[in-house]
């Protein structure tokens, strides 16, 4: 069997097509109308000497890619009307005989092309969401966190990045099976989603690790929201009364452009400090060092093995997400021996500092106060 000369990973959608899909409806229609005007102007200037059918077809495909099948059909009818008004009923380059049959044949051909382009658009959007969605919880995954979080890290406002780790998930899986562990993860993600806004970013970045990234009003609001999330994450009821505890590292990000990889690494470090104290909450305010990337890239440090994502429909405008992976499932960048030492130290800390139920929650800001 002949091998493909280019790796599959190199077969990518051109950036211009990605850019067109990311435009708002108003921006898309402006682009489509401008392209149609340019085609009509060229048709008027050249007259019957040049056939502008292929140019109109490009405009129709542009509409089908930007806005879907219905927009493509509407643009197709509009372009056919324009060429009729400009060139008359001759349907150039065809003769006047059987003009009705030519018109039907053109519309049928254009409809087929529109169906192919709009179908490719739907497949691309579906695959985009499948590649960025956690199949178990419906939250964003690690790849989506760094793609969408990079924009949020550039906001000129206060932000809060919460890195949460579920304690005791491995024990639950060993005692009651992975189905019970999956139910616990889904329940946790659902509960977190109800406590944050729809515009906040929630991502599951590992087996039992989640990240919440959001904009807040000021530093005081960030501290209050972090305390509230920590309190909610540690009050979820479990099966047969056995609830999982949650260690939280909260990174308060001041206004200005920051590096998302560095922010995630700093929050991850705070989470391990909170884990050492037993389902605790550890806060840190990011400084100017977070504006430059650390050595290596946090987005490449996946703690969860690759899974085949389930078919997932486009979540429209909803921002969904859920916490990161367990230490036992993490990929240690320094080798197997370092990972084994980390596991042993974690087990000792867990025995020395057993998780305690959270105390009275600190006063927190309302969702409007974020």
Radius of gyration, in Å, reads: 27 Å
The first-level CATH class name of the largest domain = Alpha Beta
Beta-strand portion reads: 5-15%
CATH superfamily of the largest domain: Reverse transcriptase/Diguanylate cyclase domain
Per CATH, what is the topology of the largest domain? Answer: Alpha-Beta Plaits
Indicate the structural class: alpha+beta
The averaged pLDDT comes out at: 75
Helix content: 40-55%
**Alpha carbon gap, first and last residue:** 59 Å
The CATH architecture category of the largest domain equals: 2-Layer Sandwich
Strand order of the largest sheet: 2-3-1-4-5
Supply the number of helical segments. Answer: 11
Domains, number = 2
User: Shape from CA axes?
Assistant: elongated
- The sequence of SSEs as H and E is HHHHHHEHHEEHEHEH
Query: What composes the largest sheet?
Result: 5 strands, mixed
List unreliable stretches of 5+ residues: 1-11, 300-370
SS elements, strand count:
5
Polypeptide structure, described:
A 5-stranded mixed beta sheet has the order 2-3-1-4-5, with helices on both faces. It has 11 helices and 5 strands, in the order H-H-H-H-H-H-E-H-H-E-E-H-E-H-E-H. The protein is α+β, with helices and mostly antiparallel strands. Helices cover 49% and strands 9% of the residues. The termini are far apart.
Question: Could you write a compact summary of the structure shown?
Answer:
With 370 residues, the chain is an alpha+beta fold. 49% of the residues lie in helices and 9% in strands.
């Amino acid at each position: 069997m002949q091998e493909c000369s280019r790796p599959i990973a190199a077969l990518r959608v051109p950036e211009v097509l990605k850019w067109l899909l990311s435009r708002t409806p108003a921006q898309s229609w402006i682009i489509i109308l401008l392209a149609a005007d340019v085609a009509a102007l060229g048709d008027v200037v050249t007259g019957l000497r040049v056939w502008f059918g292929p140019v109109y077809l490009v405009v129709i495909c542009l509409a089908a890619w930007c806005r879907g099948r219905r927009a493509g059909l509407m643009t197709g009818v509009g372009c056919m009307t324009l060429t009729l008004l400009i060139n008359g009923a001759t349907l150039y380059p065809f003769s006047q005989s059987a003009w009705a049959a030519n018109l039907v044949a053109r519309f049928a051909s254009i409809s087929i092309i529109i169906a192919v382009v709009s179908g490719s658009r739907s497949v691309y959007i579906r695959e985009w969401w499948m590649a960025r969605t956690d199949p178990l919880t419906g939250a964003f995954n690690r790849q989506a966190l760094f793609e969408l979080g990079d924009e949020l890290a550039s906001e000129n406002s206060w932000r809060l990045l919460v890195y949460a780790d579920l304690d005791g998930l491995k024990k639950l899986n060993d005692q009651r099976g992975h189905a019970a562990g999956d139910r616990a993860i889904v329940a946790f993600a659902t509960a977190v989603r109800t406590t944050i806004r729809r515009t906040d970013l929630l991502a599951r970045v590992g087996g039992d690790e989640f990240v919440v990234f959001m904009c807040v009003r000021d530093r005081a609001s960030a501290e209050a929201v972090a305390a509230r999330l920590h309190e909610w994450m540690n009050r979820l009821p479990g099966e047969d009364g056995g609830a999982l505890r949650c260690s939280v590292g909260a990174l308060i990000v001041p206004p200005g452009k920051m590096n998302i990889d560095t922010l995630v690494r700093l929050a991850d470090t705070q989470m391990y400090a909170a884990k050492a104290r037993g389902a605790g909450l550890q806060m840190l305010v990011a400084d100017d060092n977070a504006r430059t990337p650390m050595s290596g890239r946090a987005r490449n440090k996946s703690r969860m093995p690759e899974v085949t994502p389930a078919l997932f429909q486009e979540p429209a405008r909803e921002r969904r997400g859920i916490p990161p992976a367990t230490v036992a499932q993490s990929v240690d960048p320094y080798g197997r021996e370092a990972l084994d030492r980390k596991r042993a130290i974690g087990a000792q800390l867990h025995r020395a500092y057993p998780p305690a139920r959270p105390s009275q929650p600190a006063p927190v800001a309302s969702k409007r106060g974020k």
